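INFO worker-7 received task bundle
INFO bundle size: 2
INFO processing item 0
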Amino acid sequence: MKKMHLILLVAIAAAITVLISYTGNLTTYETIASAKQKPGKFVNLIAKLDTKEPIQYDAVKDPNFLSFTAIDTLGNSVKVVYHNTKPTDMEKSDRLVLKGRMDGDHFECKDILLKCPSKYKDNPEATEKSMAKQN
């Protein structure tokens, strides 16, 4: 076997290793129903806050306990328990990305990311100004 063939085989093996390591980091989003089928497994849920249900949070009594109900796009709901401070303006957020795992009848959340509605909705005035600048 030539030296060039050996170098080529090592390079291909390294490329395959790198590709496999990147595919392990890909994030998929689950629905509440699919997360319930994977108890104990770390998942990412996209949901919104159920404004009809109360939020349990008392910053004086226990600042590291937040409980609320989340609804996914299919209409399924689940109680979410988060052991950290309540994110600012959580009620105003259009969507929540909840990272955690199902634990019995509730979702044990480790991290909450808020999706701001203003970032995803068109602003008619800004669109008009942008179009005027292009013309």
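INFO item 0 finished
INFO processing item 1
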Amino acid sequence: MTDDRAYDVFARACPSRATLEHVTGRWGSLTLGALHDGTFRFNELRRRVDGVSEKMLSQTLQALERDGLVHREAQPTNPPRVDYTLTPLGREVAERLVGLIELVEGRMPQVVAARERYDAERGAGGTGTGDPARAASTVGA
């Protein structure tokens, strides 16, 4: 894809798809959201993004750095110190993600209630009176 053509995330070969995946994947969005709060060292960031493995955080940071969203700065100290911060583009993306994160967190009572209704309608393992297509797809399964 050349620079003079618009990018289309819905097109299979468009490189914007990979960037969208890096940004919206679980670890990418949480990492960008955490970095929105400031500069972090690797282990600080790992503690902030609870549950991420060292390997996954490293891969996530590399992908975000490659996409120009995260800046990695290694200090020539002993032991080495590496700081991660958002680039201006990364800050712009993180601002939007933080808005989405805040929306989801603020609406969790409604989400929990919807989940409870959904589960109650379907009973223990049944399809209930919900989606007929779902019920049809389980016949003969």
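INFO item 1 finished
INFO post-check item 1: DSSP finds seven helices and three strands in the chain.
INFO post-check item 1: The helical segments are 16-24, 26-35, 42-48, 54-66, 88-106, 108-122, 132-138.
INFO worker-7 idle
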